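Incident log, structure service

09:12 report received: a user says their structure output differs between two submissions of the same chain.
09:20 pulled the input from the user's history:
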Amino acid sequence: MTETATRLCDITLNGAAVATGAATLAALLAEQGFAGIKVATALNGEFVPERLRPATALAAGDRVEILTVRQGG
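09:34 re-ran on a clean worker, output below:
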């Protein structure tokens, strides 16, 4: 069984309700198509550095923000 197939929980991702099977922040990024992309992440209002994402567990009700770099002037 894979990490993302073990359970479903409801979280808020960038302001929208999402049901996810991801157990960690890193798994959520992969599930949402952000694997390999440079992003900034926050969990419940606290910044989570890239190196801590694999060990950062998700729980029902968590608020996750994923921010990508935007170019422009």
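09:41 both user submissions now match this output. Likely a transient worker issue. Closing.
09:42 reviewer note: Residues 1-5 have pLDDT under 50 and may be disordered. Residues 40 and 50 are 8 Å apart (CA to CA).
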